[in-house]
Design brief:
single chain; mainly alpha; two-stranded antiparallel ribbon; 11 helices; 10 strands; about 10% strand; globular
Amino acid sequence: MIPHILLNPILTTCNFDKTPTTPILLFELFVVAGSIIAFFTLSKIKDKVWLRFIVMAVGVLIFELFTAPMWSNHRLGRWAYLYHDVSWILTIGWTSLMLSVVLIVDKLLPNWKEWQRFILCLGILLFAIIPLEIWAVNIGIRGYSPEVLDTVYGAFLFAVPIEILYYTPIFTGLIISFYKYWSLVIDDVPLVPLKKRRWLRDIFIAFAGIFLVEVMIEPMVTNQNLPQWSYIFHDVSFLMTGIWIGVIAITAILVGKFFNHFPIIYRFFIALSMTTILGVPIESWFINNGFRIYGESAKHYYTGVIMPVMNIPIEVTFAVSCYMALLIAFMRYWENLLNNNL
């Protein structure tokens, strides 16, 4: 049974209650004070913390914007919002928490392998985020879209769906990968380029990233009308996953052939541009032919601006860019980690 606290309709337009209560104001004070303390504390153990904070915050914000239709953040005050119900309060809170865990683990365990520290960070953040999510839900900040509530199994931890045990590692894993990828630039880490790409391994990394994200965003957009034999888990089809892997592979070939001498930052944005240019027409074809169905909560975010020729809402293009930005960083981080034995 869905807890009563989650049964109220979720509005994903700008027309929702923004008036904070005393418990919510205390929550916000806790987040802001904690972020300030974390920033100055981390500045004593690591250089360029302001830049690291910005990079982590960008990753968090991309994820929040991309998955915004899945949950709501209400009653934080009119001054607390950046876009619809995406709040800078929560953005800096998640940023401070994740950056603190990553930098402290790296500081205390420098002799551990990078992948070992990565997994440890996911474990620590899982136990840290669950009570914060419970707090946010029970004081009336956090809510979940009807599509999310329709897909949960029905087990709850103090009004929070048990699926948080899955969502949290995916959320933190994508953001930490995004940060770690860009930290290679911040720290000017020397990387050994491989003469020959390990395609089988890299395809597996791409598949893992796409599969995990697709399972997570199932409440927001579903894959329908594909051959029944192609589905490998819920609505995740290896046909659609394979197409996205193909888009990323084509981009990797082109970037490697023509732009491999460019700095990392340029290669990233060139790859992001290419995957978006290739991905948007594909997503448009899926939508217009009934293979990709966006839920009502996602449609609430549409402004009504339709892309000519593509015949899809402009927000879909933005969603594809966010999706690819997180996936590219995830893939490149793990490729660099394995290539250089970090």
